[in-house]
Automatic annotation (TrEMBL), chain B:
Gene of this entry: DARS1
UniProt record similarity statement: Belongs to the class-II aminoacyl-tRNA synthetase family. Type 2 subfamily.
Subunit structure: Homodimer. Part of a multisubunit complex that groups tRNA ligases for Arg (RARS1), Asp (DARS1), Gln (QARS1), Ile (IARS1), Leu (LARS1), Lys (KARS1), Met (MARS1) the bifunctional ligase for Glu and Pro (EPRS1) and the auxiliary subunits AIMP1/p43, AIMP2/p38 and EEF1E1/p18.
Protein name (Swiss-Prot/TrEMBL): Aspartate--tRNA ligase, cytoplasmic
NCBIfam families associated with the record: aspS_nondisc, PRK05159.1
Coiled-coil ranges per UniProt: none
């Protein structure tokens, strides 16, 4: 039995507000006429922004530190226990937030992705054969236009005699400001040319041309949002993209039917092909399905998924082109 | 040197041949002349009559054609000699390209512009030994009238343009004889530059070709080049006329140098002197102020630049365009680039034979372009050059090597040989260029490039007299000299712009040739004034 009993002085669950800023200064603007803040008033214009900048820098550094710490922890797990099951909950919390289905918000930045800006429009040049219009790229173009200011142009190369008019207007109407190229962040130049395989050129000095619609789609998608940080999800996306391009488009009827069955079962488990979010896999499979012509005979889950894709928007131009 | 030795040897051969030939020709000439007159009097007889004195009237050198009489003989073109005409007896007039005797036969190649056909004179019931000898001795480049039967051949004759037929000559007369010693051999003039095992075979120097331009122009390559050039001019006129442009003719003798005094030719003009126009700039703009709205003109341009380069001439043909626009000078750029694209398309679709003929002697990559034309801004061009390692200032003009490098970079990225570079810096353009509205460092001016070389320099012109005076003063130009020019804008002038191209340079760059003198019929440069 205790000798002395003392009533608790303070409650056990008082919330303590931990300060978020290291150095606090009285607000200069709020106490104008006060004598005790006269010295702060003198330094009026110089104190506030510097403090704010310091705060911001500190936040940034702390955030980076946390990220780094988390990454190192994750790596440490794999190094020390190589055959331990990767804790999915930990890893998925590391991956940067992906995107909602309609507006893709990612932590991407054109400078980091495409290299330093030399003061000129960053022009992506795509050479496509008019006999096989790249539907996925049209969808991605529409998504890019939402995210950045894109200057889109369509040209016909001299190796092609003529193209049907809908191919000339597939990127939409000409932007009102298209006479001033430097107002745009990104250029999207589509050239209808007699090429055996779709080709993309961006930076002649640093990049070789990228060939194949699937690969160009991957490049363009990275401008919108980074690939899912989770390696399994990323591989899944890649695998669906390849399935779409190799088996749906170029495969025999049997292969196409097999892909449709696989799609059906995958879509039975989640609303989108890869996880809960809309991704490049959905874009690729939709377009290839449309092109192979088997959209009408697709099973129930696939039909539902096709409708949801169309609800996302951006698939209009691709569909129009096929008519 | 190999060339001279080879030429000397052939000259001696020809002299030996011609001595023999001339003696024979003198004997036969008079008889043949009388007989030829008799035959010519008869109505067009397609069958030659067999006579006992055997072939003496079926060859020779008739009297000079002084329009003695009007024959209704139909001459067939060499290009129409096809297997459909097999076994027909036809007359034709062509040049003797080569003649080669082989025992009882003589093979001739008869040439007409780009087409040639093999012909044969054989000793038989139609021809005598003397006739074969006569045919073998006809000098190269002589013009002959030939009556022959068209025969099909089993094996294609690769060396001629008419590969499926051969002519068996029944009658041959020399209408105009060429001198025995030619200043250059046509076969040498058409031979491509030596590569590998072909080294040592003769080709002809450009200067020799230009000195004997009349003969050089007979080659298949030259014929093709100038037909293509005619096509360019034709397409230019047709495209612009369809767009509603009016063709104007501007004066070439002018009183004051329009673009700086250094590069003008002076001519004496009665008691004073005048200048030859450097460009129709001033008069094009006056036409716009005179409400013609869209004009173009095709005419000579005279530049007294002492530049001895592969792409400068002192006199060339300028194709100039000027048009009034509504709100933005890009309307002008679109119009000009569309015209150029129509010209390229017309050449690509209708002149493939000519392009292939030129390529045989001067191989090059086919010309590629985009429609609509690619338009890059000057800052983009500078960025591309900087990325490639070139150091240059923001407002610096592009030097020729930089232009070529930029052309290669653009070709690499966009696969086009023709593009427009827009928004040049104001400091490097003439005083009548309109400055950019938002950035005073730049101007509303543009250059167009083909295969990395500049072909057109154009801009939106200043159409306000006051601004024009300011700009002229800024460039330290004497206002008195350009008073008439400034006056033309004082009575209401629409906003306008335009540009001009050089016909010879465009042809040279389209075909991928390396010297503008090849596309100028009788070129003029600081060192050449004749032919």
């Amino acid at each position: 039995m205790p000798m002395y009993q003392v009533k608790p002085v303070c409650g056990g669950d008082i919330k303590i507000d931990l300060p978020s800023c290291m150095y606090k200064l009285p607000n200069v603007h709020a106490q104008q006429g006060n004598s005790c803040t006269s010295e702060h008033a003198l330094q009026n214009g110089e104190v506030d922004p510097a403090v704010k900048a310091l705060e911001a820098r500190q936040d940034e550094i702390m955030r980076k530190l946390y990220e780094l710490k988390a990454a190192v922890e994750g790596l440490a797990k794999t190094v020390t226990t190589p055959d331990a099951d990767l804790d999915l909950t930990v890893i998925s919390s590391l991956s940067s937030p992906t995107f909602s289905s309609t507006t893709l918000k990612g932590t991407t930045d054109l400078d980091t992705l495409l290299g330093k800006d030399h003061g000129a429009l960053r022009d992506i040049v795509i050479n496509a054969n008019p006999a096989q219009p790249p539907l996925t790229l049209l969808v991605l173009h529409s998504l890019l236009c939402q995210r950045y200011r894109v200057l889109s142009t369509v040209h016909v190369h001299s190796s092609v005699a003529s193209v049907p008019p809908q191919l000339l207007s597939c990127l939409g109407p000409r932007h009102a400001d298209s006479y001033a190229r430097q107002l745009f962040q990104l250029g999207f130049t589509l050239i209808w040319k007699d090429v055996p395989k779709l080709q993309m050129k961006f930076s002649i000095q640093n990049m070789c041309p990228i060939e194949g619609e699937a690969n160009v789609a991957r490049f363009l998608f990275k401008l919108l949002a980074p690939y899912p940080g989770d390696a399994a999800l990323a591989t899944s996306v890649d695998s669906w993209v390849d399935t779409a391009f190799f088996q749906l488009v170029e495969g025999s009827a049997k292969e196409q039917a097999a892909v449709l069955r696989a799609l059906n079962s995958a879509l039975g488990r989640s609303p989108w092909l890869v996880g809960p979010e809309f991704s490049l896999a959905d874009v690729a499979c939709y377009c290839c399905l449309l092109r192979s012509g088997s959209a009408s005979v697709a099973p129930a889950n696939v039909q539902r998924w096709l409708k949801s894709c169309e609800n996302v928007g951006h698939f209009g131009p691709a569909k129009a082109l096929l008519q | 040197m190999t060339k001279e030795e080879a030429q000397g040897a052939t000259e001696e051969e020809q002299q030996a041949q011609s001595k023999k030939g001339q003696k024979k020709q003198q004997k036969e000439a008079e008889k043949a002349a009388k007989k030829a007159e008799k035959q010519a009097k008869l109505a067009a007889e397609q069958q030659s009559t067999e006579e006992d004195d055997f072939a003496k009237d079926r060859y020779g050198m008739p009297a000079m054609v002084q329009s003695q009489q009007k024959l209704d003989r139909a001459l067939v073109r060499v290009q129409d000699l096809t297997p459909e005409r097999a076994d027909q007896l036809i007359w034709l007039r062509a040049r003797v390209h080569t003649s080669r005797a082989k025992g009882k036969q003589c093979f001739l190649v008869l040439r007409q512009q780009q087409f040639n056909v093999q012909a044969l004179v054989a000793v038989g019931d139609r021809a005598s030994k003397q006739m074969v000898k006569f045919a073998a001795n006809i000098t190269k480049e002589s013009i002959v009238d030939v009556e022959a039967a068209v025969r099909k051949v089993e094996q294609k004759i690769e060396s001629c343009s008419q590969q499926d037929v051969e002519l068996h000559i029944e009658r041959i007369f020399v209408v105009s004889q060429a001198e025995a010693r030619l200043p250059l051999q046509l076969d040498d003039a058409v031979r491509p530059e030596a590569v590998g095992e072909e080294e040592g075979r003769a080709t002809v120097n450009q200067d020799t070709k230009l000195d004997n331009r009349v003969i050089d122009l007979r080659t298949t390559t030259s014929q093709a080049i100038f037909r293509l050039q005619s096509g360019v001019c034709q397409l230019f006129r047709d495209t612009l006329t369809t767009k509603g442009f009016v063709e104007i003719q501007t004066p070439k003798i002018i009183s004051a140098a329009s673009e700086g005094g250094a590069n003008v030719f002076t001519v004496s003009y009665f008691k004073t002197s005048a200048y030859l126009a450097q460009s129709p700039q001033l008069y094009k703009q006056m036409c716009i102020c005179a409400d013609f709205e869209k004009v173009f003109c095709v005419g000579p341009v005279f530049r007294a630049e002492d530049s001895n380069t592969h792409r400068h001439l002192t006199e060339f043909v300028g194709l100039d365009i000027e048009m009034a626009f509504n709100y933005h000078y890009h309307e002008v750029i679109d119009s000009i680039t569309d015209t150029m694209v129509q010209i390229f398309k017309g050449l690509r679709d209708n002149f493939q034979t000519e392009i292939q003929t030129v390529n045989k002697q001067f191989p090059s990559e086919p010309f590629k372009f985009l429609e609509p034309t690619l338009r890059l801004e000057f800052t983009e061009g500078v960025a591309m050059l900087r990325e490639a390692g070139v150091e240059m200032g923001d407002e610096e003009d592009l030097s020729t090597p930089n232009e070529k490098l930029l052309g290669r970079l653009v070709k690499e990225k966009y696969d086009t040989d023709f593009y427009v570079l827009d928004k040049y810096p104001l400091a490097v353009r003439p005083f009548y260029t309109m400055p950019d509205p938002s950035d005073p460092k730049y101007s509303n001016s543009y250059d167009m490039f083909m295969r990395g070389e500049e072909i057109l320099s154009g801009a939106q012109r200043v159409h306000d007299a006051q601004l024009l005076t300011e700009r002229a003063t800024h460039h330290q130009i004497d206002l008195e000299k350009i008073k008439a020019y400034i006056d033309s804008f004082r009575y209401g002038a629409p906003p306008h712009g335009g540009g001009g191209i050089g016909l010879e340079r465009v042809c040279m760059l389209y075909l991928g040739l390396h010297n503008v003198r090849q596309t100028s019929m009788f070129p003029r440069d600081p060192k050449r004034l004749t032919p």
